[in-house]
Specification:
The complex is a heterodimer of chains A (285) and B (271).
Chain A: E1 2-11, E2 19-25, E3 28-29, E4 34-39, H1 45-51, E5 60-65, E6 68-69, H2 77-83, E7 84-87, H3 100-110, H4 115-128, H5 145-157, E8 163-167, H6 175-192, E9 195-199, H7 203-209, E10 212-217, E11 220-226, H8 227-231, H9 234-239, H10 246-256, H11 268-281
Parallel strand pairs in A: 4-9, 4-10, 7-8, 8-9
Antiparallel strand pairs in A: 1-2, 1-3, 1-5, 5-6, 10-11
Helix pairs in contact in A: 3-4, 3-5, 4-5
Chain B: H1 16-19, H2 22-38, H3 42-59, H4 63-68, H5 74-87, E1 92-99, E2 102-107, H6 108-134, H7 137-148, H8 158-188, H9 198-204, H10 206-229, H11 248-269
Antiparallel strand pairs in B: 1-2
Helix pairs in contact in B: 2-6, 2-7, 2-11, 3-6, 3-11, 5-6, 7-8, 8-10
Classes of the chains: A alpha/beta (285), B mainly alpha (271).
């Protein structure tokens, strides 16, 4: 479980460029959760997630992961980073090894595991992200964009994190790459019961895979609730410059025009289902 | 970590010095530095110091910032002063025997030379940092391009040099941000950048340097394409958005410096 208590973070305190990035952030993310973090550029999303595995030390407040306060002095952050895997935005930009295999092995090697264990983990991680064994011996720079990204994610998965945090994992991917990445997240969540937290700008992606949503605005938690709890407050989201999924926008318009439709439609799949049911009942909606 | 570094140390403002033409500023800074090395008597120095203080006030920059520019130079200044203090031959003021014939001594000339060196270096750094404090890097490179322009006759690629300088300056913050991000990403994968012996540390840099170089090349490539797409073809026949133009302010500055230099040289060599 991840918990933050009155988390505050100030960039460059005391300098002319001082910026208060997080104000009293109190969140609780239970084990096995699938949470999306949405918010404007500069709303503190990235700052928040970097706190969760100790890359940034809070100016004030506590971060508790599985009962351990990771802000306590003298704590072994390597153990925390083993538990909380963090995939940065465009993670493929961090590939550096001669082969994909060695790149995925970088994390486990830093953990001091023996060669056999490392091999097992690399193979397992590659399988999880659907990378062919043949690719493992290639240079990471010869892969396609989507493959690079999956290889980079495998590099984090090979550390066997219990909690996986991703910063805009689908940014810059084509529709197919996006699809397969979201499926990967869902399967990690369902099959390995991993806690997944991801930052996204796409309400469609969020509606499709997440269970809960944290909305950040100007360094504070603006909303935190289930997907339907957050998206039913569409007007407030629009006020802070965010929005609801496009299909929800469409249905809200139809409802305004007098159509008898449910208000909790957030995915196209569900919309189609509802419409089919309606069509069966009568000729016109 | 590196996110908010500023290059040069430009502080925006609208003072007399900020508004001056960059070319004039660069040339006058050189002139003042040369002048600084031509004087050595106490009175010209006193006048020079007064003038430097006046310039700081004219720039409206907090004096503390100007002094901050001296910080990286402290070692060199102290070192120079000590060397001059003890090793200048002349009339002995103080002597300490260490063993046999070997002794250290401070001479009258040494003290004089030490003070002179201290003032010279401090003023040198102070005046030049005043230039970078009041001129944005872009204006600075534009100014350098203009100054180098006459050299194009002897095939010096003035525009290209200036363009390379401004691109390099432009990309420092970007690459610094990138470095910060990669360090964090590799740290998240258990990399350790600051423990172990020198060889281990050098090896630990590989996961940082390889992605950094790859990204620098990628950015360079993208930039080249973007410039090409907008028909960039070098300096020939290229006009500028901001035409540098000398105005009354610049002539006043040039005049002031000429009078100032003449006065100082008179004090130094005739009186």
């Amino acid at each position: 479980m991840i918990k933050t208590e009155n988390l505050n973070y100030i960039y460059q305190p005391g300098m002319p460029y001082e910026k208060h990035a997080l104000y009293n952030v109190n969140i609780e993310i239970p084990d096995g959760d699938f949470t999306a973090i949405i918010g404007h550029t500069g709303s503190g999303k990235s700052t928040l997630i970097q706190h969760l595995n100790g890359l940034i030390k809070p100016t004030d407040g506590k971060i508790i992961i599985d009962g351990t306060d990771i802000t306590r002095p003298g704590i072994d952050l390597k153990l925390i980073r083993k538990k909380v895997g963090l995939v940065f935005q465009y993670p493929e930009h961090q590939l550096f090894e001669e082969t994909v295999y060695r790149d995925i092995a970088f994390g486990p090697k830093n953990m001091g595991l023996d060669a056999d264990e490392i091999k097992d983990r690399v193979m397992e991680a590659a399988r999880l992200v659907n990378l062919d064994e043949a690719i493992l011996e290639k240079s990471p720079f010869d892969l396609s964009g989507g493959q690079k990204r999956r290889a980079a994610i495998a590099g984090v998965l090979s550390m066997h994190p219990k909690i996986l945090i991703l910063d805009e994992p689908t940014a810059g991917l084509d529709p197919r790459g996006r699809d397969s990445l979201l499926r990967l997240l869902t399967s990690l969540h369902e099959r390995l019961n991993m806690t997944i937290i991801f930052v996204s700008h796409s309400m469609e992606d969020v509606a499709r895979v997440a269970k809960n949503i944290i909305v950040m605005n100007k360094g504070t938690v603006f909303m935190h609730g289930s997907v339907s709890e957050v998206f039913e407050r569409g007007d407030e989201l629009i006020n802070i410059g965010l929005n609801v999924p496009q299909v929800t926008q469409l249905f809200n318009k139809l409802i305004k025009m007098g159509a008898d439709l449910p208000k909790d439609i957030y995915t196209v799949k569900y919309a189609v289902k509802i419409l089919n049911e309606k069509m069966k009942g009568k000729e016109h909606v | 970590m590196f996110k908010d570094i500023t290059i040069g140390q430009y502080i925006s403002g609208d003072s007399f010095l900020h508004k001056m033409d960059a070319r004039v500023k660069i040339i006058l800074t050189f002139a003042v530095i040369i002048l600084l090395f031509m004087i050595s008597d106490p009175i010209p120095y006193a006048v020079f110091i007064a003038f430097a203080v006046f310039l700081v006030f004219l720039s409206k920059i907090p004096p503390l910032y100007v002094l901050k520019g001296l910080r990286p130079m402290v070692f060199i200044i102290v070192f120079t002063v000590i060397i001059n203090l003890f090793l200048t031959p002349g009339e002995t003021l103080w002597q300490q025997k260490i063993f046999f014939d070997w002794s250290i001594k401070i001479t009258y000339e040494g003290v004089r030379m030490g003070i002179l060196m201290f003032l010279r270096l401090t003023l040198l750094v102070g005046v030049t940092s005043l230039l970078t404090l009041t001129t944005s890097p872009i204006m600075l490179t534009d100014g350098i391009e203009n100054i180098l322009k006459p050299l194009e006759i002897i095939k010096v690629p003035a525009h290209e040099i200036a363009m390379m300088m401004s691109i390099a300056i432009r990309f420092i913050p970007t690459l610094a941000e990138e470095t910060d991000k990669i360090i964090k990403a590799q740290t998240a994968r258990g990399a350790d950048f600051d423990s172990g012996n020198i060889i281990m540390r050098a090896k630990a840099m590989i996961p940082l340097l390889v992605p950094l170089f790859v990204s620098a090349f990628r950015r360079a490539d993208e930039l080249a394409t973007a410039m090409d797409a907008r028909c960039y073809h070098g300096g020939k026949n290229r006009t500028r958005m901001k035409q540098a133009k000398m105005c009354a302010r610049d002539y006043i500055a040039v005049g002031t410096i000429i009078v100032f230099a003449a006065a100082l040289l008179l004090m130094q060599y005739l009186i």
